[in-house]
UniProtKB/TrEMBL annotation:
One of its GO terms (molecular function) is UDP-glucosyltransferase activity. It comes from Triticum aestivum (Wheat). The keyword Disulfide bond does not apply. Belongs to the UDP-glycosyltransferase family. This is Glycosyltransferase. It is an enzyme of class 2 (transferase). The keyword Transferase applies. Its EC number is 2.4.1.-. It holds the Pfam family UDPGT. Keywords: Glycosyltransferase, Transferase.
Length: 481
């Protein structure tokens, strides 16, 4: 009898995508996989919805199950932070999730793997006697910091915000400026958001084990900190399994009916000559910042491929739109910019096939928001990065990327929330044609080789996943007895 693994990423393309890659690993080991999604009472962005639909359509071997929608109180409460609403929603879905698991033959149910934000469903799995694990889609460095934060916050009468850029010492990671922590964690310890997030990270380390989307050599110090009584002196964390890098594969040319226009354009550019500027599915910048970046790119004299989204913080976003959600580039960018950079640069609206672009021989650098999925994709492709972190844990990732991993340099303007044209010009030139850029490319190339080795037969990530399967089998037998 084939066994079934249930993966529960909740909603959000940034969580569904890496868990889909994890699902494919289970499939290769002979397991059936069901991905459980929830239907939020508030709409995802069009691009997010489309991306999830695209993922489902391109992975027919995975069964996707959407839990029945429900009407729960207070989801439209204007005073509630969207993150708290999401957590409340996922908690209400526990009943539906339990009913779904009851529908699977207990003997064939191998395990349940929960996304970091669906962690309340641990209670359902414990109740049913099902092996339950966490899939932490972020970096090991981020998880290490988050597990150490409660001890730092405990007993404080004020939040960490007042510390500004003061470096904080955490085991396993470089000194972390207080300002670089997830902003909600900087608030007063009794703040509702701060308490909710602290509870999430605590519960993430209370399942039967943690699957990490990383590989040992990339974050060795952080991984080791999670394996001993270093992060939380009073207890040992559950087993840590580094099973990454789990990233999607770019589509092969022969598999495409029609290649994206930006790939056709890249075909005409010299090797490693193009800066790819893309800030993820939510990376919206202000109109002023977009214009400043445009000036810097133009002055740099370098080739570029730039994915531009509708600007953030606009009181009248419709003024930028011609049809639908795509930005009107003529209104957003400096007058004449597109004409002056024609041939040397290409600006695309809202979306570009990121893995295909990173894998392309012409791509020489990647300006990224430092989301962990994007970081891993660039490392796997061997592309050095310029860091422009925006939100969530991205500033934390930036510290590790530049100081521990050696795969990136920063655009220092992120510290003030505005990157000037002069810095864009200088840093783009540095990475593409400077001596420091050559050294950076060499380090990233070495990381790429390590990533490939991790996933080869007998590689550390393959061995870690095999050990995970053995541990689940052993645990499953104990729970059934």
């Amino acid at each position: 009898m084939r066994q079934t693994v249930v993966l529960y990423p909740g909603a959000g393309v940034g969580h569904v995508r890496p868990m889909t890659e994890l699902a494919n690993v289970f499939l290769k080991h002979g397991y059936d996989v069901t991905m459980v999604l929830v239907e939020p009472p508030f709409k995802l962005s069009d691009s997010g919805t489309t991306a999830i639909e695209r993922i489902a359509a391109s992975n027919p071997s995975i069964s996707f199950h959407v839990l029945p929608s429900l009407q729960a109180p207070d989801f439209a409460a204007p005073s509630k932070h969207p993150f708290l609403l999401m957590l409340q929603l996922l908690h209400y879905y526990n009943e539906q999730f339990e009913a779904f698991l009851h529908g699977i033959d207990r003997k064939s149910l191998h395990s349940v793997v929960l996304d970091m934000f669906c962690i309340d469903a641990t209670d359902v799995c414990v109740k049913l006697g099902v092996p339950v694990y966490t899939f932490f889609a972020g970096s090991a460095s981020c998880l290490s910091v988050l597990t150490q934060l409660p001890a730092l916050i405990a007993g404080r009468q004020t939040g960490l915000k007042e510390l500004g850029d003061t470096p904080l010492d955490f085991v396993g990671v470089p000194p972390m400026p207080a300002s670089h922590l997830i902003k909600e964690l900087l608030e007063h310890p009794e703040d509702e958001m701060c308490k909710a997030m602290m509870n999430i990270w605590k519960r993430n380390t209370e399942t039967m084990g943690i699957l990490l989307n990383t590989f040992e050599l990339l974050e060795n110090r952080a991984v080791q900190s999670l394996r001993g009584p270093l992060c939380i002196p009073e207890r040992i964390l559950p087993p840590i399994y580094c099973v990454g890098p789990l990233v999607g594969k770019g589509a092969k040319d022969e598999d495409k009916v029609e290649r994206n226009e930006c790939l056709e354009w890249l075909d005409m550019q010299p090797d490693r000559s193009v800066v790819f500027f893309c800030l993820g599915s939510k990376g919206a910048l202000s109109e002023e910042q977009l214009k400043e970046i445009a000036v810097g790119l133009e002055r740099s004299g370098q080739r570029f491929l730039w994915s531009v989204r509708r600007p953030a913080g606009s009181d009248n976003p419709e003024k930028y739109l011609k049809v639908g959600p795509e930005p009107d580039l003529g209104s957003l960018l400096p007058q004449g910019f597109l004409e002056r950079t024609k041939g040397r640069g290409l600006v695309v609206k809202s979306w570009a096939p990121q893995m295909d672009v990173l894998d392309h021989r012409a791509t020489g650098a990647f300006v990224t928001h430092c989301g962990w999925n994007s970081v891993l994709e660039a490392i796997v492709a061997g592309v050095p990065m310029l860091c422009l972190p925006l939100e969530a844990e991205q500033k934390m990732n930036k510290v590790s990327m530049t100081e521990d991993m050696g795969v990136a340099v920063e655009l220092e303007g992120y510290m003030t929330g505005f990157v000037k044209a002069d810095e864009v010009e200088v840093k783009v030139r540095l990475v593409i044609e400077g001596e420091e850029g050559k050294q950076l490319r060499a380090r990233v190339a070495a990381r790429r080789e390590e990533a490939e080795a991790a996933l080869e037969e007998g590689g550390p990530s393959r061995v870690a996943f095999a050990q995970f399967l053995l541990d689940v089998d052993s645990l499953g037998k104990q729970l059934r007895e």
